[in-house]
Amino acid sequence: MNFGQGPTQLRLDNGNVAGGNQFNAMGTYLLGLVDGGGRILQVPDIYRTRTSMLSFYVRDQWQVNRKLTLSYGTRMESFPMPVRQNRGMERYDFATNEMLVCGVGGIPKDCGTKVAKLLFSPRLGLAYRMNEKTVIRSGLGLNRDPWNLARPLRTNYPILVAFNLAPAALGWSTTLTRGLPVLPTPSVGSNGRIAIPTNYAVNTTGDEFRRSYILNYNFIIQRDLGKNWAGQVGYVASRAARVSSRLNLNAGQVIGADQAGQPLFPRFGRAVGTSLIGPMGDNNYHSMQATLTKRFSSGLQTNVAYTWSKAMGWCCNEDNNGGPLVPALAFTGLNYVPLNFDRTHNLQITATYELPFGAGKRFSGGRAFNVLAGGWQINTLTTAMTGTPVRVTSDGGSLRLPGSTQRADQVKQDVPRLGNIGRGAAYFDPFAFARVTEPRFGTADFNSLRGPNFINSDLGLFRNFSVKEHFGFQFRAEWFNWTNTPKFGNPSAGINNLLTNPDGTFRGGVFEVTGTNAGGREPNGDRILRLGLKMTL
């Protein structure tokens, strides 16, 4: 059960709605008004899906002459529709509000959803040696998105009964006293059609599923700089066309119309998600990438890599499983913004240094000194990246467009980054944005701000001890985040939660950084010392 802001938001005399916040949600809870949530029932204890993916690859390499080499090939792939153990999947009929059970009765096993039988993915690469120190490399490749349709379709009605509460924007569906209903178990009839209750959510394919593709291309110049140094710089890009996702076709389509603007509500009283699995929009990535490498010599090996990039796309759907922030078809252009993982600058430095102590080194001493001080190496990995995008939102009560995320109003052209950390401290200027109380989208683009930067450095010390020819030990001492640099998460960004003091100054509720972002590393990215001893045979 969810308790949202809508039931306790104020209605203004002009017909608009005052902005809601977390206190409205608390009031909804205290009144026992349930405006969202639901329950699910998995009908069979065990269900099974069957998927096949077939691919073949052929390639050749042609050295045209001493300077030019071409590599070319293609993948041939097939992605048939998934099926269940003894029948096909399911498909929603938008004309009758029924679920078609594929392979039952006279319904085809694929439910009439067409997929390509064979897909080709060609690749071409070239290397051209301008002179003995300079090489140009370029490549172009097309890849098919192998996203498995069994993932969004595997728990569909009648395998999974997903009951959803879907009240009007400012209303509620049930109360704590009434609770939630007991879900009946559906049964599949002999004709393969099941009438589906209007408050059960479903995913479905259409008449055709066109698999998305990713086009990768690059142009790089590599040069030997002498004294074991080499550098390269180039343009690296990709375009994901027709990115597959879930598009809720029963989302509100008319601002201010609330449930009346949901296509299936006037016909069937259906107000819950009814998502079409298929292509939505394009994602684009462009970057300048440069590396500087020193091959191991004089005890030192190092690599410096820098990327200046931008990733724009259909927000926010990095893994195919989410839908757009705004599914209303007339406003899908609002979804094309920097993607959640976009980082403008990314610097990576790695190095390994053999300490100059011991026999045969720059600093040599007696036998005891050479044994104790010789053979040690230091390695390091340092990362510095700009922050990821921050999405500033407002409550959607005045928008009355079910399924869409409301944007805040940006009232200052430039948004000062204050950089404060913790409760009651604002990372961005909280007065650069305002709530939206009218039936329209806010003016602030999604993902228009950048959160805290990410900086980390690791340091390692190790040495190999050889006892016999095939027997030895390795000692390692590793300091993760040895500088103990904090890595903060993005600030909260719901402008409707802004709290002010009586004198109008900032009190809290928005743009507060209260968590960390370990970046997938050790818990919380804390400084950690780890000692290890490995035996090799």
Characterization of the model:
By secondary structure, the chain is mainly β. Among the domains are: 1-35, no CATH class; 345-537, no CATH class. It is built from four helices and 30 strands. Strand 7 and strand 8 (98-101) form a beta hairpin. The two termini are 59 Å apart. The mean pLDDT is 92.
Average predicted local confidence, pLDDT: 92
Segments where pLDDT lies below 50 for 5+ residues? Answer: none
What structural category characterises the helix and strand content? mainly beta
- Write down the Rg: 29 Å
Tell me the distance between the termini: 59 Å
Proportion in β-strands: 35-45%
Annotation, overall tally of beta strands: 30
* Bulk shape: globular
Could you give the topology of this structure?
Blueprint: H1 22-30, E1 33-34, E2 38-42, E3 49-50, E4 54-63, E5 68-78, E6 83-84, E7 90-93, E8 98-101, E9 119-129, E10 134-144, H2 150-153, E11 160-164, E12 174-175, E13 193-195, E14 202-204, E15 213-226, E16 229-248, H3 265-268, E17 274-297, E18 300-314, E19 336-338, E20 345-354, H4 367-373, E21 376-385, E22 389-390, E23 409-410, E24 433-434, E25 449-450, E26 454-468, E27 471-480, E28 499-500, E29 506-508, E30 528-536
Parallel strand pairs: 14-17
Antiparallel strand pairs: 1-12, 2-11, 3-6, 4-5, 5-9, 7-8, 8-13, 9-10, 10-15, 15-16, 16-17, 17-18, 18-19, 18-20, 20-21, 21-26, 22-25, 23-24, 26-27, 27-30, 28-29
